Amino acid sequence: MRIGVLTSGGDSPGMNAAIRAVVRTANDYPNLEVIGFIKGLRGILYKEFIYLNERSVSGTIEKGGTFLQSSREPRFLDYNYRQIAYQVLNELEIDWLVIIGGNGSFNAAYKIITESNIKVVGITGTIDNDIYGTEYTLGYDTALNTATQAIDKIRDTAYSFGRIFIVEVMGRDYGLLPLDIALATGSELVLIPEYKIPTPKIAEKIHQYKVKGKKHVIVVLSEGYCSAFELEKELNPILKKYDSNYELKITVLGHIQRGGNPTAYDRIFGTLSGQKAIELIINNQNGFFIALKNNKIEPLPIELAIKNKKKLNHQLVNVLEQLAI
């Protein structure tokens, strides 16, 4: 059997560990061959691929990003382009695809499963940890730690000058990453898409913290809530009415959260996910992805992931506010 592996959509730390495990586990079976498509689904359309063996993936487990590269391929939304992709996969005699990515990648995977003869296994690769059915997605721990370390440094300056900082982090549609960052850093406020707060109320909360004697205030802002610059424009004049000496500063962490060496946890999770993917292929379990359930790695249907939305535990917001006194 010939297996194609690709990384699609936003990169996440640990993807290389997953690719490595897929390749090296497959190499244990004499009837399995692995090729890697360059730049995700785009690589299929352009027939850009490399043959992978145990030496091809040496020295990759500790590296961030994805050595196969990634892309967002909007043409794959077009049925005609998908037919081109299926033709290419059949010409290359691909029996299985291992697709590493997030919700968009899983939607593409489901189309491949239902429209073609190609079989698919999915591995979660997204720093948002927003895929339904799994407790964890590859890259989340690294992104969380990267942002935590950055805010720890920001806090030093915030304290030194008694400033109020808005720190914009990733988390476009799902607020768990910003919320966990806020909890991990002891931040005073978190603003996430699921929990909207009127801007005057934000200003009031900040003022109350200062009145209580807090030397500085950290507001963790999800990019999906609004941009830090939009919030600063609305918030600053309201704060000045409370105290003209209030000084508001902005830091946008951006893509720094996707990069960097994966943590030990992401290396291990990527490794176990890659190994499990080959196990599913050997057992002919088409249309499944690797999930973490009750701290155990197990397969779940990709259809389950794309037809349901993961919900946030709002009690964690209450915990943050309770501790930020």
What's the number of structural domains? Answer: 2
What would CATH call the class of the largest domain?
Answer: Alpha Beta
- The helix tally amounts to 11
Low-confidence stretches: none
Task: Please name the CATH topology of the largest domain.
Answer: Rossmann fold
How many individual β-strands?
11
Taking strands numbered 1, 2, ... along the chain, how are they ordered across the largest sheet?
3-2-1-4-5-10-11
Radius of gyration: 22 Å
Overall SS class: alpha/beta
The percent range for strand residues is 15-25%
Mean pLDDT: 96
- CATH architecture classification name of the largest domain: 3-Layer(aba) Sandwich
| General form | elongated
Distance between the termini: 60 Å
* Residue share in helix: 40-55%
Order of helices and strands: EHEHEHEHEHEHEHEHEHEEHH
The main β sheet shows up as: 7 strands, mixed
Q: If you had to describe this structure to a student in words, what would you say it looks like?
A:
The structure is a single chain. This protein is α/β, with parallel strands linked by helices and 325 residues long. The chain has 2 domains: 183 residues, Rossmann fold; 118 residues, 3-Layer(aba) Sandwich (Rossmann fold). Helix content is 42%, strand content 18%. A 7-stranded mixed β-sheet has the order 3-2-1-4-5-10-11, with helices on both faces. The protein has a 4-stranded parallel β-sheet with strand order 7-8-6-9, with helices on both faces. Helix 1 packs parallel to helix 9 and helix 7 crosses helix 8. The longest helix has 22 residues. The N and C termini lie far apart (60 Å).
